[in-house]
Amino acid sequence: MPGKKSLFALLVLFVLIPSFLFPQIYSENYKQQQNDVMPYPRNMVINRGLPFEVNNEFSATSAIGASKKLTLAINDFSEKISRKTGIVINEENKFNSKSAGLLVYAENESPAGIITDESYTVEVTQYRIILKAKTDIGALRGLQTILQLVQFANGKYYIPACRISDTPRFPWRGLMMDVSRHFMPVEVIKRNIDGMAAVKLNVLHLHLADNQGFRVECKTFPKLHGLGSDGNYLTQEQIKDIIKYANDRGIRVVPEFDIPGHSTAWFVGYPEYASAPGPYEIERHFGVFDPCFDPTKESTYEFFDKFFGEMSALFNDEYIHIGGDENEGKQWDANADIQAFMKKNGFASNHELQAYFNKRIQKILEKYGKKMIGWDEIFSENLPKDIVIHSWRGKESMVKAAQLGYASILSSGYYIDLCQSVFDHYFNDPLPSDIYLTSEEKKFIYGGEATMWAELVNPDNVDSRIWPRAAAIAEVLWSGIKSFSEDSLENKFILYRRFDNASKFLNEIGVKHQSNRKLLLAKITDKPELLENILKVWEPLKYYNRHKYTKYSQSTPLNRAVDIAVPDAPLSFEFSYLVGRIITDKAEKEEIESGIKTIKELEKTCGEYLREKQNGNIEEIEILAEKTKSLCSVINGLLYCLQNKTRYGEESVNFDYYRQPTAELELTLVNPAEELYKFIERRGHIK
Question: Looking at 310, 326, 352, 681, which residue is catalytic?
């Protein structure tokens, strides 16, 4: 009979070991975890009572007269339950509050706004689910939580008995989508709004104008979209449709028109407002360019008065984003009239001239009932206190702004286009415990935004760059990292599995981060399932390193392996976890055996891919397969040596060779493999 200590160790093993080791045991244990929901509720208690069974008698309804928004949400909830379970919702009970399984109480109808009450409570018993909220938007948030709680076991769908009291940590929880560099049509935006609603993000920030395109119809100045978009733009009717779609899901839409820089596309049709004479063309490549509005001409502000007058009527949110970033001022420096204006007005720097420009723009926005938000370069103590500073270069400007009484939001550390690990984002907090702010100053930190810049994404792969990592950011902004704050090996594993669970949920509701990848795989190889497995250990190069190898433009096809691979390669993470357990002497014999089996299967997959005749551009994929196969052979040798306590061999392994980028990808098995090698070496099993 094993002792208590051994039983505890066995329990920990079953709960924590990766899915490739004991998939059935892992799956059944994980379904029992109360942390399936993402974002994790602020307060949640799983009760010991019997769960609520979801069967063909189930229906959901509002206890009192529901708003159109809430009625739509309840109908959508019912459809998703039916799609998830295959159970036909009972229509007879749908409008009967006495027999409905889910009863929703929402006290008030509320527009999506910065001060909207999004709190809610949920109580689940064997007999009924009660959802209560101060506003219909709060009820929407609660419905998403309940939907994630639906589980399957013993041939039945159920929701565990529980009590939840939930409210957001920050009022501004956003996703920025760049539709300028690569245009994103309405259907792409809408399905990502669905993803946002699922994880309780509440601000869609649309980056609508940049050097590469002006993407919204402007009736006052029709050459903006007519000449500056290649015909790819959102009509005003489409914008209204997007806003309604988002607002119905409790999500605000904040437009961004980047000025005075990042503005080449504006000048294709209206060069007279630039700081240097034209003609101008849409910029096809990516980077920081010189074209910039002339801030010294009164005609510039007359133009913006008319432009923002029209856009203020089109977009119903109280904020308009003016960008304001990365203006290097080269056109200003070269323009004699602008230099004379600066001297006359006592402006000692381009920053002071831009502050003057921002002040004039702010007054125009104020005239139309709008508040200004901009990237941290716009920060100036001369601006009114109702503006918002959007911090992208670091937390310093955010902290300084808060100390001076200005609201700010954080995007530094949330650039999901950079293909960083989900853990980099998750352990990045707008309000860490050691931040140097008073309790009053902390109130000026409104939240944050994940930013999806579109240099290297298009409608086919943008979902896979946003999700599921944006769900991790959503949790930080909704409830904080809570009990998962310790950056430990075991906690990272728990978090990784929660992100994986969120990914499956997002797939269920129609986000195409998984399905579109499969379509892209099928386009570039005759054996998509083999390549998919190989890419489980490869990740796109992080930050902006891909640009070192390819000069990307709008016309560059984004259909290579690097465009299909995702951050946080799943098999690499699981192997890294296994190695972590090995070097801390926690790994059991069964784990090591299963690890050997998994790596051997990957090695076999690579061999099979190399033997098959493929169509299309496969040269770089063959190199990936060869490199993966070779490293798998090394790893299997190391694991065999560890398992059998034999010597690995006399030759050292050149891990730097495997670490070198290939086809703009990195083989992420390398680091844990090298850790394993050094561990075995320390034990004297490598000469």
Answer: 326
- The rounded distance, in Å, linking the Cα atoms of 137 and 134 is 8
Cα–Cα dist 469/414, whole Å: 9
Q: What is the pLDDT of residue 94?
A: 57
- In sequence order, what E strands does 63-119 have? 102-108
* CA–CA separation, 391 and 231 (whole Å): 32
Q: How far apart are CA 362 and CA 349, in angstroms?
A: 20
pLDDT profile of the chain (687 residues), mean per 10: 35 39 35 69 90 91 88 94 86 63 94 92 96 97 96 91 96 98 98 98 98 98 98 98 98 98 98 96 96 98 98 98 95 98 97 96 98 95 92 92 96 97 94 92 97 98 97 95 68 89 94 96 91 97 96 96 96 95 92 94 94 67 95 94 81 92 97 94 79
User: How many angstroms separate the first and last alpha carbons of the chain?
Assistant: 41
Residue 58: which H helix or E strand, with range? none
Q: Is this model's pTM higher than 0.85 or not?
A: yes
φ, ψ (nearest 5 deg) of residue 43: -140, 125
**Given this model, what pLDDT does residue 32 score?**
45
399/406 Cα distance (integer angstroms): 9
Asked about 326 being catalytic, the answer comes back as yes
Residue 365 CB contacts under 8 Å (≥ 6 apart), including other chains: 308, 312, 320, 322, 371, 372
Pairing of strands 172-178, 445-452: parallel
Task: Decide the pairing of beta strands 129-135 and 120-124.
Answer: antiparallel
Are 335 and 350 spatial neighbours (Cβ–Cβ below 8 Å)? no
Tokens (6 digits) for 99: 């027999």
Q: How many CA atoms lie within 13 A of 479 on its CB side?
A: 26
Which residue, chain included where needed, has tokens 């001369």? 382
CA atoms of 673 and 157, how far apart (whole Å)? 41
* Whole-Å CA distances, 285 to 181, 213, 451, 546, 550: 9, 11, 20, 14, 11
Determine the Cα–Cα distance for residues 453 and 233; give it in Å rounded to an integer.
17
